[in-house]
C-alpha cells in the first residue's frame, strides 16, 4: 500500500512534465514558422524593380531610390547604405547591356573607355579594367563584323627590345581575355609599339603610369 501511494504521485509528475515539453515544442515550431525572410532590394535610378532573397535569389533593379535597402516581408527597412564600388559590382551582375556599334560613339558609354593601363613591368589585367573589357567583348561577340586592333605600349624604362616584348605581352593578354569572352580571333589583331608612342611625353611617374597601356582601336564597326 505504501508503494502505491509513492508511485501514483510520481506518475502524475511525469505526465505533467511531458505536457510541458510538448507545449514548448509547439511554441518553438510556431515561432520558426513565423520567421520573416529577409530580402535585399537593389535600387538605382532608371532601372526595373525586384529583389534578392537571403539565399541568393535574382538581383533586380528598383527605380524608386538610389541605394541598397534590406527589407523583411513586412516592409521594415534594415539596411540603407551602399558604396559606389558595391553598386558597380551589383550592376555588373545585372547581366547583358546589349551594346551596339552605336554605343561606340557615345562618350557616356563604358565603350568610350578604350585604354587599359598596367602596373610597372606587368602584363596582367587589373580587376578594375575587367568590366571595360567585358563590355567590349560583348559588343564584339554579338557583332562579328566588327574588328579591333590591340596596341601594346610600355614606358621608357628598360631597353627597347625588352619594352617591345613587354608591350606585345600586354596586347596578347587583352586578346586572350577577349577570346575567353567569345570574341573570334579573326576579329582581333595585335601591335607592339614598346616605348615608341608615349601617351604623355615626359619623364616622371605620372607619364610612365599613362604610357603602360593597351589601346583598343576599332578598325571597322
Task: Characterise this structure.
This protein has about 220 residues and is of the alpha+beta class. It has three domains: about 35 residues; about 55 residues, no CATH class; about 120 residues, 2-Layer Sandwich (60s Ribosomal Protein L30, Chain: A), CATH 3.30.1330.60. Helices cover about 40% and strands about 20% of the residues. The protein is built from five helices and nine strands. The strands form two sheets. Strands 1, 2, 3, 4 and 5 form a five-stranded mixed sheet that branches. Strands 6-9-7-8 form a four-stranded mixed sheet. Helix 3 packs across helix 4. The radius of gyration is 31 Å and the shape is globular. The N terminus is likely disordered.
Determine the structural class based on helices, strands and strand pairing: alpha+beta
Q: How much β-strand is present in the residues?
A: 15-25%
Q: Give the H and E element order.
A: HEEEEEHEHEHEHE
| Mean pLDDT score | 73
For the terminal residues, how far apart are their CA atoms? 105 Å
Summed up, the domain count is 3
Number of helix segments?
A: 5
Report the principal-axis shape: globular
> What name does the CATH topology of the largest domain carry?
60s Ribosomal Protein L30, Chain: A
Task: Just name the CATH architecture of the largest domain.
Answer: 2-Layer Sandwich
Helical amount:
25-40%
Please tell me how large the radius of gyration is: 31 Å
CATH superfamily of the largest domain: OmpA-like domain
Q: Would you report the number of β strands?
A: 9
Report on the biggest sheet. 5 strands, mixed
Low-confidence stretches: 1-12, 17-82
Amino acid at each position: 500500500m505504501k508503494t502505491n501511494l509513492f508511485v501514483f504521485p510520481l506518475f502524475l509528475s511525469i505526465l505533467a512534465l511531458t505536457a510541458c515539453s510538448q507545449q514548448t515544442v509547439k511554441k518553438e515550431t510556431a515561432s520558426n514558422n513565423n520567421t520573416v525572410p529577409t530580402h535585399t532590394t537593389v535600387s538605382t535610378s532608371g532601372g526595373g524593380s525586384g529583389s534578392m532573397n537571403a539565399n541568393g535569389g535574382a538581383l533586380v533593379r528598383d527605380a524608386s531610390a538610389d541605394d541598397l535597402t534590406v527589407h523583411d516581408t513586412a516592409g521594415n527597412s534594415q539596411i540603407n547604405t551602399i558604396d559606389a564600388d558595391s553598386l558597380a559590382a551589383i550592376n555588373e551582375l545585372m547581366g547583358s547591356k546589349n551594346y551596339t556599334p552605336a554605343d561606340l560613339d557615345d562618350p557616356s558609354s563604358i565603350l568610350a573607355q578604350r585604354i587599359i593601363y598596367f602596373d610597372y613591368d606587368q602584363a596582367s589585367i587589373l580587376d578594375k579594367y575587367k568590366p571595360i573589357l567585358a563590355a567590349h567583348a560583348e559588343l564584339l561577340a554579338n557583332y562579328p563584323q566588327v574588328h579591333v586592333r590591340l596596341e601594346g605600349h610600355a614606358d621608357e624604362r628598360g631597353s627597347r627590345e625588352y619594352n617591345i616584348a613587354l608591350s606585345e605581352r600586354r596586347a596578347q593578354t587583352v586578346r586572350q581575355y577577349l577570346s575567353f569572352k567569345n570574341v573570334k580571333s579573326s576579329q582581333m589583331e595585335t601591335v607592339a609599339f614598346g616605348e615608341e608612342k608615349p601617351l604623355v611625353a615626359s619623364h616622371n611617374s605620372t607619364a610612365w603610369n599613362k604610357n603602360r597601356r593597351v589601346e583598343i582601336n576599332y578598325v571597322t564597326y
